[in-house]
Amino acid sequence: MPTSVELRKQRAGVVESMRAITEKAESENRGLSGEERTSYDRHEQDFTGLTERIERQEAEEERAAQMAEPIRRSGQRPDDGGRGTEETRAKEKRAAFFQALRRGARLAPEQRALVENTAGEILVPEDLEQEIYRALPGLTVVRGIASSRPTSSNRIRRRSLNEVSVGWGSLETNEQTLADSMPSTPTEEFTYIEDLYGLAKIGEDELDDSDTNLEAFVRDSFARAVGEAEDTAFTIGTGHASNQPVGFMTTGGGVPVVTAATGNTTVKVDQFKNLVYAVPAQYRRNARFAVASGTELALSLLRDNSSGAGTGPYLWQPSVQAGRPNTFLGYAIENQEDIAAVAASAKVAAFGDFNAGYRIYDRAGMTVKVLDQLYAEEGMIGWKIRMRVGGDVVRPEALRILQLSAT
Q: What is the DSSP letter of 306?
């Protein structure tokens, strides 16, 4: 009789087959053919059947484990709701994961079954994966200001919506006057989850350290390996056709552009004031600027010259508290180095409520491939990290982009 782990691997293979069918049809911009539909339905039945078998097998394995467990005077008790078993299983997976990082293909079969997927990749334990995700906002810009959601799908269907309408009235007498927020002909759109790869290397001698030190290294190196790449993609990524998220500074993001008047090829106060007031008032409350460091430097030299003396106060204000950004015109400034520098026709700044306007989708299941032979001559072991993430502009009206004049 197959174990629950083996059944899960079978189910994962079924899911991959279903995904291949739908992705082929999507890439050809068509629906499923009759043969594909029959195959997809058969796989769906297999998935349902395997899910039921997994649930039964896991229940059997749980009962067998409980029957085999000796009675103890302390520690786990029969009425702990199974928490002890879950904690033990999580510890075993975590230990197997670090053994996999150290030993690669030489991992014992029973440990490999705990952490390896059907593609031969090592699954990062869920609790460690969450720790890596929590570290990312401190290393990147966009994750700290945009919204994010977990997902279990390869793509997220979106429909274009107007803002939600509300109205006054009595609930009991059904006197409310509400307008439908869905357009009469909604546009179907998708945000795709893309594969992001990173490479981390560690010296063989360092692997002799304790698991605690290795765990800290994994959290830091994995987060840094993917952080910079995803931040660039969230800003200037060109979309699914390039296997990237959609950046908010790109045409695909659909953010309206405020173009400076002719002759404005450098940074000026009036341009940024126009940018601010181009954003609807409800989104200005939580708005901020995103510019390159060189652009912020130019902003920091601008003064309020309303008196005409040329010696007015600076409009840029330095932060007086660690961890808080500098401000300009009363709004926070974030530095994103992938935004263009000041030049004619350049899109030099974005402004608005990024939390409302841009969304990041994280798909669980970060994996690692151990490259224990590729860098052997260097005395190093490589880890190829795969992280699945998507990003897209969900409310273009919450943001605006400033483009300088061509001449």
A: T
Q: pLDDT for 319-367, tens place per residue?
A: 877 778 999 999 999 999 999 999 999 999 999 999 999 999 999 888 9
DSSP element (H, E) containing 221: helix 211-236
- The pLDDT of 240-244, averaged and rounded, is 93
Residues 312 and 342 both lie in one domain: yes
Taking CA atoms, 97 is separated from 6, 388, 392, in Å, by 18, 19, 32
CA–CA dist 197, 370 (Å, integer) = 13
Contact 340, 346 (CB under 8 A): yes
Percent of the chain at pLDDT > 90 equals 37
Type of residue numbered 331: Y
Tell me what the mean pLDDT of segment 227-241 comes to: 93
Question: Cα angle vertex 192, ends 130, 250, to 5°?
Answer: 105
Tokens, residue 13: 């293979």
Shared-domain flag, residues 248 and 288: yes
Nearest-angstrom CA–CA distance, 166 and 365: 39
The whole model's pTM is what?
Answer: 0.69
Residues 240 and 140 in one domain: yes
Are 115 and 125 within one domain? no
- Check whether residue 228 and residue 185 sit in a common domain: yes
Answer whether 203's CB lies under 8 Å from 400's CB: no
Residues of the domain holding 374 = 121-407
